From TrEMBL:
It holds the Pfam family adh_short_C2. InterPro entries: NAD(P)-bd_dom_sf, SDR_DHRS6-like, SDR_fam. This is SDR family oxidoreductase. The keyword S-adenosyl-L-methionine does not apply. It comes from Marinomonas transparens. The lineage of its organism: Bacteria, Pseudomonadati, Pseudomonadota, Gammaproteobacteria, Oceanospirillales.
Amino acid sequence: MRLKGKTILITAAGQGIGRASAEACFNEGAQVIATDVNAEALQQLQKACPGIKTHLLDVTDGHAIKALAGQLPNLDGLFNCAGFVHNGSVLDLSDEDWDFSVALNVTSMVRMCRTFLPGMLEQAKVGGSSSIVNMASMASSIKGFPMRTAYGATKAAVIGLTKGIAADFVKQGIRCNCVCPGTVDTPSLRGRIDSAPDPVQAQKDFIARQPMGRLAEVSDIAPMIVYLLSDDSKFVTGQAMLVDGGVTI
Ligand code: NAD
């Protein structure tokens, strides 16, 4: 029970990596507050895992973030998972596409951290350490991929945000790390594959770029989230943890 006694909030917990992480944290003894913009997905999560608390939250809505924080106890852990993939080069990127990618992938995390950090600092005073985990990607400042300019740029910003928070609060019991997965088999990836002109080839192409010869499962990523939120990682901060099946060897 590596997360016993910890209260942890997760965004985009309705499906994919967020959901798997919510279940893994719950199974390690955490009080999990699972949030998502999709009410039906949250209902399904609660059916599967009745001890998890759920709240609707659109992370692009700053007022909603503040309102939710006002209803919750101080957190020991925060996993900012929500993010969006824009498919295209810089020539395909309208101002609206760019603004949306920045709003969902970066500004939401800035607001979540700004809103929940004061309570986490209080918690760190009594509990010893609090942990923020942000979702970045191998597609970021770490490596460029075709048709991922907005995605890579915003995920690079997540790595910078993570390092900045880690540096500012390292002496006050706050750790901040980010996770950089390879390609993970989740509902949104399935959507990207299915909407390709040749879905069979698209799946082959995603697999071909991963040296381990397969897509990641969400169960490959959730243990890293649990580790970073737990005291097992109490000497780890400011890091971008790659879980990519060997893409960046
Ligand atoms: P997904 O894209 O399948 O699901 C995303 C979840 O986010 C959904 O439940 C959706 O309802 C929720 N969501 C969407 N907009 C939201 C908003 N405004 N507020 C709150 N919730 C919102 O999940 P995934 O593929 O596991 O991706 C999760 C994160 O992992 C993203 O940040 C993504 O960039 C990152 N990531 C994914 C992969 C991959 O290959 N799947 C690889 C690297 C990083």
